[in-house]
Amino acid sequence: MDEIDQLTGGSPLPPSIDHFMELEGVVDISTARELHEEVDRLVGQGADSLTIDMSRVSFMDSSGITFLLNARQRTSVAIRAPSVAVRQLIEVTGLTEFFQILD
């Protein structure tokens, strides 16, 4: 299984969400490129919004923040159930106002 299969899920889409990603494990420089490519693919398919489940992300560095900000430039982004690590990084960087957080 390649890294993107581990990071994005085949979970059924909630009825009111255009596109859904489920991330797991580490979001850092080693996974960021694949995540950017996945957002490119979804936007290319016409994604008006993207919900990213981050409940199982154990670690995220600045590459993850860059990924989220780049995704937000391309489409509307909501972060669903951010893990403690993700929530702390978003709060410390002052980006809570940039993303809808769905608990």
Topology of this protein?
Blueprint: H1 3-7, E1 19-27, H2 29-44, E2 49-60, H3 62-74, E3 76-80, H4 84-92, E4 100-102
Parallel strand pairs: 1-2, 2-3, 3-4
Helix pairs in contact: 2-3
> How far from one another are the termini?
29 Å
What oligomerization state is this entry in? single chain
Query: From N to C, what is the helix and strand string?
Result: HEHEHEHE
Shape: globular
Give descriptors for this structure.
single chain; 103 residues; alpha/beta; Transcription Regulator spoIIAA; four-stranded parallel β-sheet; globular; disordered N terminus
Polypeptide structure, described:
The chain is of the alpha/beta class. It has one domain (3-102): Transcription Regulator spoIIAA (2-Layer Sandwich). It has 4 helices and 4 strands, in the order H-E-H-E-H-E-H-E. The chain has helices spanning 3-7, 29-44, 62-74, 84-92, and strands at 19-27, 49-60, 76-80, 100-102. It has a 4-stranded parallel sheet, sandwiched between helices. Helix 2 links the parallel strand 1 and strand 2. Helix 2 packs parallel to helix 3. The chain starts with a helix and ends with a strand. The model is unreliable at 1-6 and 13-17 (pLDDT under 50).
